[in-house]
Amino acid sequence: MHCETEPLQCWRYRVADKSWHRTAANDPDVFGEGSAAASSPELGLAISGLGPKGHPVGKDPDRTRIVLVNDRESLTYLPPLPESKWGHCIVALPNGGVIVTGGNTASTFLFYTGKREWERLVDLPTPRADPMCGLMTPKGHEEDELESEMRLVVAGGWISGDDGSRRAANVSEHFGLISLRWKEGGYSKRLYKQEEMAL
To answer: Does residue 16 register a pLDDT over 60?
Structure first.
């Protein structure tokens, strides 16, 4: 499955005839410059940071829409994000939920599929745009409490200065999905050899 967001439209690759076919998963009234996407078997493809047609990023107060594209090639809109997001990242969780963080604001939100509502979590410690994020699963021999639980890892991105300049964010931060707290992760090669990171 491949989706574009200017406007929202999706294609599926068919191996039998080795070609792409446009699916029924499209919405000509929804756009998403600066949107983010993640996928999981439970959710399908989740795309966040969508908004109405004709409003450029940074001037549009409504980038709160999030949509799921499933294997049946249909669209399901989740309840809107509590605030507009663009230049952010999204991660799909094993329980069918999602976490959205970073981008134009440092806020972090968790969506529970069972409750059908968003919960605000602790803000991303280093505010930045366009970070990468994924889940890190422990091997079970870590001494630190945070490193012994599954956690969200947010790495890199860009930090904007007051003068409009941008610099690379050479930092990674880990958020424990049980303890619900952040910790600086750094770029330790040893850490990534000991644990599996799914980006």
So the answer is: yes
